[in-house]
Amino acid sequence: MYEGYRQLHDAALAPGAVDAKTKELVALAIAVSKECDGCIAAHAHAAVQRGATPPEAAEVIGVAFLMNGGPATVYGARAYDAFTEFYNTHSAGGRTQE
Prior knowledge:
By secondary structure, this protein is mainly alpha-helical. Helices cover 79% and strands 0% of the residues.
C-alpha cells in the first residue's frame, strides 16, 4: 500500500504542465486546509527544496485562509513557521533531510 501511495505521490508532484515548486506550494495550502501537521512539514520542506520563497508560501497560505476560514489561520501559521524554518536552514547552507 505504501509503495503504491509513494508512486502516486511521485507522479502527482513530478514536473509537467505545472512545475514541481508550484505543485508543492499547492500541496502546502491543501495541508493547511486538511489541518495535517505532518503534511505541512513534508510539503513546506519540499517546497523549499524546489526553490519556493517565503512570500510565495505566504500567498498560498493566504489562499488556504480564504478557502478554509478560521481553522486555516491556526494551521497557516504553523505552515509558515515550518516553511521559514526549512527556508532559513536551506539558505544558510545547511542540509535538511530529504
